[in-house]
Amino acid sequence: MVAVTPGSSPEPLKPDDLPLGGTQTFAWSMDAETKTVRNGSRLNKVLLLRLDPEGFNAETKERAADGVVAYSAICVHTGCDVTNWHPDRQLLECPCHYSTYDPKEGAKVVSGPAPRRLPALPLKIADSRLVVAKPFTGRAGFQQT
Asked: Domain 2-132 is of which CATH architecture?
């Protein structure tokens, strides 16, 4: 599976398609053989960031590909999209209730009401393209209590 950006022709992304230290890119995974884009559920929406891997913890380094990390784009608190990126602090934030996540530390919760980290989507590179290496590390979205 490979990552493609929404609204574009299903073209696999390369690490260089993402600006180093730039804002997150939202994408869907695509089956490389059938070209089926997995956009039928918003729970499949991922956010991609390309950062300097020197700042990653060991767990994040293992899941990243050429500095690119992928996480569920859905906040685990109430299911809003995680759309805010703070480049100065290099943190992701959900605009609904301000849960803040550190993408360099496996998207752990830094502040806010989120009960757990964003699920990661491990990546690898094949034929110079970003490819999904394993399933999400946890359940995407939020759980009602």
From this structure: 3-layer Sandwich (2.102)
